[in-house]
Task: structure prediction
Amino acid sequence: MRPSLLDPLFAAAGTLPGIGPKNAKLFDRLLGRPQGARVLDVLFHLPHATLDRRARPKIRDAIPDTIVTVQAKVVEHREPNTRGRGPFKVLVEDDTGDVTLVFFLANPEWVRARLPVGATRWISGKLELYDGMRQIVHPDKVMDDEELARLPAVEPVYGLTEGLYQRTAARAAEGALKRLPPFPEWVAADAVEKLNWPTFAGALAAMHRPSAPEDIDPAGRAASRLAYDELLANQLALLLVRARLKTIAGRAHVAEGALGRRLEAALPFALTGAQAKALDDIRADLRSEKRMIRLLQGDVGSGKTAVALLAMAEVVEAGRQAAMMAPTEVLARQHFERLAPLAATVGLRMALMTGRDRAPERRETLTALASGALDIVVGTHALFQDSVVFADLGLAVVDEQHRFGVRQRLALAAKGQATDLLVMTATPIPRSLVLAYFGDMDVSALREKPPGRQPIDTRAMPIERIDEIVAALSRALAAGARAYWICPLVEESETLDVAAAEDRAEALRSIFGDKVGLVHGRMAGPDKDAAMARFQSGETTVLVSTTVVEVGVDVPEATIMIVEHAERFGLAQLHQLRGRVGRGAGRSSCLLLYKGPLGETAKARIEMLRETEDGFRIAEEDLRLRGEGDVLGARQAGAPGFRFARLDIHAGLLARARHDAEAAIARSDRLADEGGRSLRLLLYLFERDEAAKLVEAG
Ligand code: ADP
Ligand code: MG
Result:
């Protein structure tokens, strides 16, 4: 069980000062916790920038376009005209010069009261030159001496969501810091000293209360400490899980391969060399006594599904069941719809199970799974509810696509007796990082694409040329093409996001009529499915989508991918999006619409995409480009699955974390010594509960 020491951090965020029911909802959205954000989530939501208010120049010396805090005397009010139009201007001066403060739509009472003529005030805000005159539009602060004394010289700036204010986020973070319990130190004393690291709590405090912009630097001491702690928790979890999976001896699935051969013959294609090789590896694992823990890596479209199906057939031939879990409803459905007809040709009994099943169907599936009347089940995380019992689960396939989580893997694998595990990922991960994400799993990679694919014509164009682009799209559609049109994530606002996609869909509808479909993250599941289905059937021929929706559906007829504001996407993300086309035999194109001017890194990124379609190469390049400091999407968040660790910056800490985790387990494999006990705490802190439970249980 989670130690009670941590309870204050797992309390609802709504218990923090300043978070009422309305704000609580906003935090839930901001922190990606629809089930309810916790104090911990607030604490781990670090500022991504700072406002430095340390500059206290004389007005004459104030540097335009920087934040300044000046002391000045109020000289004159220039009120809006009688109809209340125009800004309220206030002229202030010191002995070196003057500044006009400009308030739009301000309450005049407030301005008069805060800035009475003749008073001396401290004014903080961004100084600008307008027609050669100094001005500050909407000063951030207007203070007397006392208030100035309380002004933090450097303020944290948090990522927000619509309706949430900086001061609310800052106040919540401050409240969350106060809830931090006293932690034992889990990093070896000599390491802490050598690296000059703060404690875990000290690092959080340093970042939420920066005294200089450097304090929040992702490569700085505080951020490194947090990243290390997270990597350590992660490596410990991976090691513990692996050790556990390995202690249960595997079972040999004895099959002669006849079912697989029949299935292979029923496939409309021959396996590629890479697929055949991966399948050989998998079959060897399945047939041996050893428990399989294998990662199947390959770009979208590289043909992982066929490999998974053949692997499942092998296990079924050996008299056992197989399960395949997809991260979303849409993907689970798609897998099922594609696999079921194939499975039927060789008499495999297959069912679909998702969160949306009706009760009678669900009961029927459950009964059939428990009795062994079903061979294969495809589904979402609904598969690992307690009510799901297998007669004899031999193989669990987890299609993680772009997500990572040991949780699902463990839960599904725990459904069977020594169930073999095949994890599939469409994110090609550089070798150096496989360890961070997956621990030491065996790896099969599909680098080779199925034959007959034509290279995708990739181009970049400024968004200003949209008329030309729409004209070209119109010609292509007339010739029978189908196209995706992706609108990017608008920073910090899902509403704006959806609005951008809606606007684009509207604009395209005015040209292409009801041939234009739309999917976005705010739509209800069935509506999403319906929109996807219409695109799949060709009822709509342009699908406008936000990236919130993983356009995971396989539509081989789609040959055009248009990405709006491509400069806001990361290289790997663009690569994934492009992978949605070029799946059929038709010639495909990918158009990256950007808003210029492009920086060096954005140019390099586009150049790279034009040059290659090899996801592994792109992943390595992505890492390199990120390492050069330009983080796309501006989100300073961790790598997928991590809150703090950024593998471009903290990759060096990974080896240390790995080493320390191994050493800790070597000292006490149940983490039962003193150091081990603090590491258990660390596991709970980073929500590796499953792993922590492994060492606690008898
Ligand atoms: P992934 O799961 O890796 O994204 P899929 O398994 O969905 O890829 O395969 C993408 C497409 O390629 C599917 O339409 C599939 O039928 C087809 N395909 C898979 N293997 C081959 C092959 N060896 N030759 C030709 N087409 C293939
Ligand atoms: Mg797939």
